[in-house]
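Hi there,

I know you've been waiting on this one. I reran it after we fixed the sequence typo, so this is the corrected version. Both the input and the resulting structure follow.
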Amino acid sequence: TGVFEEVTDKMKLACVAAALAALLALATSSVRATTFFKEEFGGDWESRWVTAKGDKGTFKLSAGKFFGDETINQGLQTSQDAKFYAVSAKFDEQFSNEGKELVLQFSVKHEQSIDCGGGYLKLFPSSLTQEEMTGDSPYNIMFGPDICGPGTKRVHVIFEHKGENKLIKKEIRCKDDVDTHVYTLIVRPDNTYEVQIDLEKVEGGSLEEDWDMLPAKEILDPEASKPADWDDKPKIDDPEDSKPADWDAPEFIADPEAEKPDDWDDEMDGDWEAPQVENPEYKGTWTPKQIDNPNYQGLWVHPKVANPEYQPDDTLYKYADNAFIGIDIWQVKSGTIFDNIIITDSYDEAKTHAEETYKKTIDGEIAMRKESEEKERLEREELQKKMEEDQKKAEAEKAASDKEDEDFDDEEEEEVHDEL
């Protein structure tokens, strides 16, 4: 009985511990899951967004030509070609991401088959004056796709660090079709990051390794140099090889078949010389054959030493002052739609938002596009068929007309002949 009671008590304690752990995890999740900004462009969205001064392009509210749900897919669409666009929205409260995730996520659709233009967002500090926002306004993070011709189709991930904008050293290819895509940036407090497109990871790693924010951990040893007698030639001339005696034939010789012209005047034309032709005996420049170098020491590698200027920084991820989100882009051809922006400290929350918006509507959007494309294809084929039929009809009518003219001419010729 005592053993049974002891086992029972242990089981009770284990159950209580598990329940407490679950409650703690739930409480922790609830505390840390904060959405700092969410924009689905419903209601009075114009009261939340401020356009910068100057000759800026105009945004309009649109779900585009193709959509799965017109309300969910309605976003800000660029509407004027060859324009700078500069618009921003202020958060309810300025926030810091210290000690927690920072997740920036939004959808973008280039339904105009964009040739050159940006599709990215910028996270700004509280120092931004919205009406004065320009491409030179300091920002914390710039994230999203950028396309210009066939050579530039990349996802920008740029972090501000000590007054400089640091570009990611990796190449992340963006989507370049006409459908909606969701771009997600996750910055973690352990100085790691992840980039997702359509909720699928496309890149990730270390902030320190993938950006030049800190000096290199190691540098080339300034005291080291390659020894003067270091032999790094894997091959050398064979000392026993020698050039054949008959090798040095000239590259060009006088044409043996050439003859002095009969009308050549030595006094007037000078001494006659036969033209030069390639020498069939010419063998080129002689070089001795190569053999393995018995003294080869391999390539000399410059040793490295610890960089005295390097200092680790576990706060590379941190931005203590985040207050605005902005769209600051140039587009040659307009039509891009920005939508469903969310900034939070919980990836799960961002993922759920994407599932309720993008995942819920993308299949319908693609189906609508394909149906429209099929309709346009059939219309083109019908138009082409009609043009070909009209052309054949015109050719037949012309041939008939030419035949009538020819018959008429023959009749006139017969009449004239009869009269004669």
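Quick highlight: Residues 347-419 form the longest helix (73 residues).

Best,
R. S.
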